[in-house]
Structures are given as structure tokens and as C-alpha cells.
Design goal:
The protein is α+β, with helices and mostly antiparallel strands. It has helices spanning 9-106, 133-145, 197-201, and strands at 113-119, 123-130, 150-156, 165-166, 174-175, 179-187, 216-217. It is rod-shaped, with a radius of gyration of 50 Å. Helices cover 51% and strands 16% of the residues. The strands form two sheets. A five-stranded antiparallel beta sheet has the order 3-6-2-1-7, covered by helices on one side. The protein has a two-stranded antiparallel ribbon with strand order 4-5. It is built from three helices and seven strands; from the N terminus they run αββαββββαβ. The protein has a domain at 107-164 and 176-192 and 208-217.
């Protein structure tokens, strides 16, 4: 049996058109649904980024506050550091200066009488009394041997020598023969007295490192060189 299609062609065209409309409708729904989903995801991401940005701004403000506090604390450290440095210098000086004087004693001739010792940054000035020129020579020779503490030794200020010397008032007893002299020694390692601004120096009664003017008898400890 032979089938014969007697329907006109436009009937099939309408069916095809309806099918394409259905397909495009489905595609349009999918596109709209995808757009809505993308928009919702975008809004969620944007909200998350805004939250992170807010947290970052809070952390930034905390960091700025901490930096400000750090600057303030560092400003307080300056004076404290200066005081600590001064205390360390005082401790160092109080250890090194006595050690220097102990070394000087080792090379002091027993007949020498110290009147005053002034210690500056790089020099030690010694005002002393010697009973005779030979005693002063022995003492000077000892100081020359102390090359580990003195790089140079120079004797100066020998105002008078020889004969007896009398005191101030007439009729006073004559002093033994002898003379006063000064020696300037250059230190191999400079030793500066510590200083901490004007406030520390205020009220000081004597220069740091300077000894009183009353005489100090020289000694020759066991094993010291006496220049003999």
C-alpha cells in the first residue's frame, strides 16, 4: 500500500517553527538562569571582598597605632640609653683607673713623694718630690720601663735644686735637700673620665680623675723595679 502525503508544505513548516521556538525558549531560560546564578555568585564574592577589606582596614589601623606607640616608646629609650651608657662608662673607668694607678705604684721609686696626680684623656700629670737628683733619675728610669702603660714620659717643671730650702716664715726649720718636679706621661690606652651632660657635672666638687693635693708617699712593692 502506498502512502500519499496530501498535506500542503506550510503545515510542516509550522511544526518546524514551533520546535525551534521551543528550543530557543529552553536556551533562553538556561541563559537567564545562568545569568542569575552568576549575578548571585558575584554578589556573594563582592560581599566577601568587602568584608575582607573592612578587616584589612582594621588591621591597618592597629598597625598604625602600634607604630605610633613604638615611636613614643623609642623616644623614651633615648634618655635611658644615655644613662645606661654613662653607668657603663663609670663602671669601666672605676675598674681601669685603679688598675692604672696600681701599675704606676709598681714602677714608683720608694723615695719619691707624690703631691698630686691628674688623669686626663690621654695623659697622666704627676707632681712629685724627690730628695735628690739621683732619686728622680731612678724614678724616671722606672717610668721609661713602663712602656706597656706609657708611650712617652717627659720631665718638666724643675724649679730649683741643691742646698737647703727654707719654708715661708723667718726662723722656720730648713727642709731637707730636694726639689719638686712634674712628669707628663702619655698613656698607651687613653682613659677619659665619664661625663653625662651638665646635670651630672653640677654639684661636683673636683674634676673626675684628679687626686687631692696632699702628699702621697711612693712605695716599691715586692718585685718592683727601683732603678738600682
Amino acid at each position: 500500500m502506498i502512502k500519499i502525503n496530501l498535506l500542503p508544505p506550510y503545515v510542516f513548516e509550522k511544526v518546524a517553527i514551533r520546535r525551534w521556538v521551543a528550543v530557543f525558549g529552553v536556551l533562553l531560560v538556561l541563559v537567564i538562569a545562568g545569568g542569575l546564578g552568576w549575578r548571585m555568585n558575584l554578589n556573594s564574592t563582592l560581599a566577601s571582598l568587602n568584608e575582607q577589606l573592612s578587616e584589612a582596614k582594621i588591621r591597618e589601623q592597629r598597625v598604625i597605632d602600634m607604630q605610633q606607640k613604638t615611636v613614643e616608646e623609642l623616644a623614651k629609650v633615648g634618655p635611658v640609653a644615655g644613662k645606661v651608657k654613662f653607668i657603663e662608662d663609670v663602671m669601666y673607668y672605676n675598674e681601669e683607673a685603679p688598675a692604672l694607678y696600681r701599675e704606676l705604684v709598681k714602677f714608683t721609686y720608694e723615695k719619691i713623694l707624690y703631691r698630686q696626680i691628674n688623669l686626663t684623656n690621654a695623659q697622666m700629670e704627676i707632681d712629685a718630690y724627690a730628695p735628690s737628683l739621683s732619686d728622680a733619675g731612678r724614678y724616671l728610669l722606672n717610668l721609661y720601663r713602663a712602656s706597656h702603660i706609657f708611650s712617652s714620659v717627659v720631665m718638666s717643671a724643675v724649679p730649683s735644686y741643691g742646698g737647703s730650702q727654707t719654708g715661708g716664715a723667718p726662723g722656720s726649720a730648713a727642709r731637707p735637700r730636694g726639689f719638686d718636679f712634674k712628669i707628663i706621661c702619655t698613656l698607651t690606652q687613653p682613659l677619659a673620665p665619664p661625663a653625662y651632660g651638665a646635670g651630672v657635672a653640677a654639684g661636683a666638687t673636683q674634676t673626675p680623675g684628679a687626686y687631692p693635693s696632699q702628699p702621697m708617699g711612693g712605695t716599691s712593692p715586692s718585685g718592683a723595679r727601683t732603678g738600682t
